[in-house]
């Protein structure tokens, strides 16, 4: 055979191969590559969305932590304020209780003083009667002289 005919046969075979490849092999390969490219693009977009979601979630977490710290500090301040109020109320209650105890003690002391005065008056009246008996050298009957003894007690 002649080299030209061989070249022509090879060129026709190559053209048939190219046509067959373009018609039956190339479209499924391009479709698979397009699908793969689309999946990669979707994966990259999902990764970007995940990254943005992560950033937003971390911002929300930081905001919630800041809010929780603020609420905790407010609770601590409120607790300190309340404890101060409780201490002041306890001090006030203790003062009023102390004043009440002092007033009761003073009233009791006043009553004791009155009782002591009455007792001293009675003893003084007895001493006066005893002294009068010695001076008069005669016996004084307390029943007979009750009015006199009562007036002496009243004067004292």
TrEMBL record:
Membrane topology field: Single-pass membrane protein
Cell inner membrane found in the keyword field: yes
Pfam families: ATP-synt_B
Subcellular location: Cell membrane; Endomembrane system
Stored SUPFAM superfamilies: F1F0 ATP synthase subunit B, membrane domain
InterPro entries in the cross-refs: ATP_synth_B-like_membr_sf, ATP_synth_b/b'su_bac/chlpt, ATP_synth_F0_bsu_bac, ATP_synthase_B_chain
Alphabetized GO MF terms: proton-transporting ATP synthase activity, rotational mechanism; proton-transporting ATPase activity, rotational mechanism
Coiled-coil stretches: 44-78
Subunit structure: F-type ATPases have 2 components, F(1) - the catalytic core - and F(0) - the membrane proton channel. F(1) has five subunits: alpha(3), beta(3), gamma(1), delta(1), epsilon(1). F(0) has four main subunits: a(1), b(2) and c(10-14). The alpha and beta chains form an alternating ring which encloses part of the gamma chain. F(1) is attached to F(0) by a central stalk formed by the gamma and epsilon chains, while a peripheral stalk is formed by the delta and b chains. F-type ATPases have 2 components, F(1) - the catalytic core - and F(0) - the membrane proton channel. F(1) has five subunits: alpha(3), beta(3), gamma(1), delta(1), epsilon(1). F(0) has three main subunits: a(1), b(2) and c(10-14). The alpha and beta chains form an alternating ring which encloses part of the gamma chain. F(1) is attached to F(0) by a central stalk formed by the gamma and epsilon chains, while a peripheral stalk is formed by the delta and b chains.
Family label: Belongs to the ATPase B chain family.
Family matches, as PANTHER family: ATP SYNTHASE SUBUNIT B, ATP SYNTHASE SUBUNIT B', CHLOROPLASTIC
HAMAP family from the UniProt entry: ATP_synth_b_bprime
Descriptive protein name: ATP synthase subunit b
Encoding gene, per UniProt annotation: atpF
């Amino acid at each position: 055979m002649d080299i030209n005919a061989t070249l022509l046969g090879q060129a026709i075979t190559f053209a048939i191969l190219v046509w067959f490849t373009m018609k039956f092999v190339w479209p499924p390969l391009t479709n698979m590559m397009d699908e793969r490219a689309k999946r990669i693009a979707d994966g990259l977009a999902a990764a970007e969305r995940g990254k943005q979601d992560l950033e937003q979630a971390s911002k929300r977490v930081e905001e919630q932590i800041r809010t929780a710290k603020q609420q905790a500090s407010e609770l601590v301040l409120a607790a300190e304020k309340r404890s101060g109020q409780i201490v002041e109320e306890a001090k006030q209650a203790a003062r009023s209780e102390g004043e009440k105890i002092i007033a009761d003690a003073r009233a009791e002391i006043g009553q004791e003083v009155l009782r002591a005065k009455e007792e001293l008056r009675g003893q003084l009246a007895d001493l006066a009667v005893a002294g009068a008996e010695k001076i008069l050298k005669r016996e004084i009957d307390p029943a007979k002289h009750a009015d006199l003894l009562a007036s002496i007690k009243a004067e004292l």
